[in-house]
Amino acid sequence: MRNPPKKTKRKTGVYFFSSAHTPLSCPLFPKTNLPGHDIESLLAASPEHCQTLCSAHPQFFVFLGFSGTIFKCYLKNNMAEMVAKAEEGVTSGLPTHFCQLVNSTYHIPNLFHPNYWNHLTNMTSSLLTECAMKTLEGINLPGSDLRFLLVNNAKACQKTCTEDPNCQFYTYTIMLLLMLFHSSRRCYLKRVITMPAPPKVTKLANAVSGFSLRNCHY
């Protein structure tokens, strides 16, 4: 007979917030906006991509905000004056510098707690590298092409990008060639000079986009 699972106690003094995150990721806060104090806006394909851009930016930024309707990533600072507001279609979050893994439990701050900013100031900075880049169905990242090749599926395109040291992101498309009665399955490998920030993000049926997995740690 199996022993019952041990009960774990939640430590006091830490504010927990229900958020969308994986075991090795920094938390994201859906339906949460932190208006104002924008330093820069970039195009991003997803909240996870926005978080990666925020974490990799050469300047130090405190928060990110992602609007899913226009694919915009807003980098912010001046955390002492930020006020969290509930808003549909907007995701906010932390750069990975603020994630702290202690005894396999994430200390996740509550953005709405009155003592949050004091808690954040006292946190130990610990950079966690992980793969936040999921595949993005129905998303096209036009431009910045290195080359294209024919592959059977989006997974093969992702693998090709990961194995190419020059590839930062990709778009896989299926084009129906009605006159020839077959489809053209193209994998476009892409790169920009600095961070993997696509110059344009659009919606496109039969397209799958994503990012290189070279920096992923499992």
From TrEMBL:
<protein>
    <recommendedName>
        <fullName>Apple domain-containing protein</fullName>
    </recommendedName>
</protein>
<keyword id="KW-0677">Repeat</keyword>
<dbReference type="GO" id="GO:0006508">
    <property type="term" value="P:proteolysis"/>
</dbReference>
<dbReference type="GO" id="GO:0005576">
    <property type="term" value="C:extracellular region"/>
</dbReference>
<dbReference type="InterPro" id="IPR003609">
    <property type="entry name" value="Pan_app"/>
</dbReference>
<dbReference type="Pfam" id="PF14295">
    <property type="entry name" value="PAN_4"/>
</dbReference>
<dbReference type="Pfam" id="PF00024">
    <property type="entry name" value="PAN_1"/>
</dbReference>
<feature type="domain" description="Apple">
    <location>
        <begin position="131"/>
        <end position="216"/>
    </location>
</feature>
<dbReference type="InterPro" id="IPR000177">
    <property type="entry name" value="Apple"/>
</dbReference>
<keyword id="KW-1015">Disulfide bond</keyword>
